[in-house]
# Entry
Amino acid sequence: MNIIIKNSSGQPIYEQIYTQIKDLILNGTLREGDLLPSIRGLAKDLRISVITTKRAYDELEREGYVNTVGGKGCFVAGTNRELIREENLKKIEEHLQAISRLAKSCGITKEDLLEMFSILEVEE
# Structure
């Protein structure tokens, strides 16, 4: 698992860890039952406080993405497929809103955007 901390980001470090691990779970890189690095181990690897790492893991557990088993570690929880779908729909909506704002500022019409999307879809 490769977590990248950006000191220049305005996002708190625990939130960066939380977001990256959550994304790994949602995109299927981390699967149900996978063991996460220990809190101390991850803190050491990232050269951050154990408290910061613990806060990220606590958030993941509170949101239902991981389960902590005393003495064994933190494991990826079974995820609800509907939850994953909703998370992805939310991301798509955010991207579409950003695209819409940018398109309007450039004078690009809805039809132009749809054509661009169709071209990109064919190329893939």
